[in-house]
Amino acid sequence: MEKIISIKDLNYTYPEAKRSAIKNLSLDIYKNEWLSIVGKNGSGKSTLTKLIDGLIEADSGTIEVAGQIINEENIWEARTKIGIIFQNPDHQFVGATVEDDVAFGLENQGMPREEMVKAVDEALILVKMADFKERDPQSLSGGQKQRVAIAGVLATKPQIVIMDESTSMLDPDGRKTVLNLVQQLRSQQDLTIISITHDIEETELSQRIVVLNDGQIVSDGKPEEIYDLGADLQKFGLEEPFTSELVSTLRDTIKLPDGYLNEEELKEQLWKLHSNM
Amino acid sequence: MGRYLPGDSLVYRLDPRGKFLLTFYFVGIVFLANNVASYAFLLAFVIFAVFLSKINFGFFLKGLKPVFWLILFTVALQLLFTPSANPLWHWGIFTFSKEGLVIAGYIFIRFILIIFISTLLTLTTTPIEISDSIESILKPLKKIKFPVTQVALMLSIALRFVPLLVDETTKIMDAQRARGVDFGEGGLIKRIKSFVPILIPLFVSSFSIAYDLAIAMESRGYKDGEGRSKYRVLSWDRRDNIMVIFMAAVTGILLFLRSY
């Protein structure tokens, strides 16, 4: 697999903070994978995003984005390869209307207007928000606003999309729509997705999970492996996913196969219990 | 004034720059009117413009509401204090005369004209169009290094965040009410004091919104406003030329009626 982001021995301490936010962190992220970074508040996950996008400067260590070590000179170029969807949909909406907001990133690149109009339309179709083109942000739901934010990021054709707690302020329906959309876009547009969350339930669609605690990686593996840590997750301030908690409780009384079961697999096991077939 | 009302008519389709400048121009020439004929003519023009906009007349009357007391006060002042050689009625410092009546009438019509025409601008032009117009009109100032595009972006972001801050204020007020703050009671000082617990959280949250937005803008490649292209473009059409010519004709007729 081809590496798209390669982080080596990264260190960062916030000005006037006693503890460092990121400690000697090394991490390789591969092309087209969906990586979830989980950790409790203050574990350093948002700091890591800002470091990758060069919004803050590391004390030491290197970050390589698409084969190029980022520094002050090429940071703007690196940023065109990375799109970030932030947590609060209201705090990242720059334009007065949906289409203006999607165009913002393109305006920054100085794209000629005719191309811009096309790119905005295409991006809005991808996130299924084309009908809302002329609406103002205040009239949209949280999930719709995040879809517009995704369109704004996609319009600039990035290779990497970082979701920094982007679904944490949405209702369950909005969250589901946004996550499924991202999943679909990942394969369609050959994107690499890095999603950052404190809620382990949101990592279901990812292929790899990195657990961050006190600025260090404490665990790195496939979702099943991470969910299997069970009660160990609580050490890092994370809650065990509901299904895996349920499975471990059920194991005391009924016989279930070893390893992690997702909701569907668990259902599959449970309905068989009272069947005589 | 009023808030933008989505709609479609000739007035909506006019270039906002033209509308913006001509509204100011019209407010200026209103002061040239000096007799019944010229006021009647301007009133006819405004009613014609309102008719062209296809907006319900009620919205314009609503525009009068906030300045109703100001109008009443000014008109009353003119009615009672205009000096006259042959007053119809005289009592102490008050004088009521035919001249006073006429001047009060003129002032009243002047208010109506100015308020209706500016309401017409704000009802048919989105805030963002107005901010685009200001940017376009101020463009020459770029020569003296005035950051026109940055100021315009600031203006449009400010406009964009007004409703968000209003929501934020309501939320804070509710939160403070839940803690027992009463906003509607007590003397003036007490009431003003009760706004402190709204203002401080509002300031704090505005700063945090500003910080988040700045990070979001930077991550989307916003540098310093240079080398940007523009998605929204204003287009000056033939109908805008016609509007300017029409306005010139209105001025001509007004000047003629003045000396009539």
Would you summarize the structure shown here?
Chain A is built from ten helices and ten strands.
Mean pLDDT of chain A: 88
End-to-end Cα distance of chain B, whole Å, is: 33 Å
Number of domains of chain B: 2
Distance between the termini of chain A: 45 Å
Percent range of helical residues of chain A: 25-40%
How would you sum up the global shape of chain A? globular
Biggest sheet of chain B, strands in spatial order? 1-2
Computed over alpha carbons, the radius of gyration of chain B is 24 Å
Order of helices and strands of chain A: EEEHEEHEHHHEHEEEHHHH
**Which ranges of chain B are low-confidence, i.e. pLDDT below 50, for 5 or more consecutive residues?**
none
3D shape of chain B: flat
The number of distinct helices of chain B, counting runs of at least 4 residues, comes to 11
Portion in strands of chain B:
under 5%
Catalogue the unreliable spans of chain A. none
- Mean of residue pLDDT values of chain B: 89
Q: Biggest sheet of chain B, open or closed, and with what strands and sense? A: 2 strands, antiparallel
The radius of gyration computed from the alpha-carbon positions of chain A, rounded to a whole number of angstroms, is: 20 Å
What strand line-up does the widest sheet of chain A have? 6-7-8-3-9-10
Structural class of chain B: mainly alpha
Structural class of chain A, by secondary structure, is: alpha/beta
Q: Please report the number of helical segments of chain A.
A: 10
Q: Can you walk through the features of this model?
A:
- The complex is a heterodimer of chains A (277) and B (260).
- Chain A is α/β, with parallel strands linked by helices.
- Chain A is built from ten helices and ten strands.
- In chain A, a hairpin with a 2-residue loop joins strand 4 (60-65) and strand 5.
- In chain A, helix 3 packs across helix 4 (113-126), helix 3 runs parallel beside helix 5 (142-155) and helix 5 runs parallel beside helix 6 (172-189).
- Chain A is globular.
- With 260 residues, chain B is an all-alpha fold.
- Chain B folds into two domains: 1-146 and 235-260, no CATH class; 148-223, no CATH class.
- Chain B has helices at residues 10-13, 16-30, 36-53, 57-64, 68-81, 98-124, 127-138, 148-178, 188-193, 196-219, 238-258; strands at residues 89-91, 94-96.
- A two-stranded antiparallel sheet of chain B has the order 1-2.
- The longest helix of chain B has 31 residues, at 148-178.
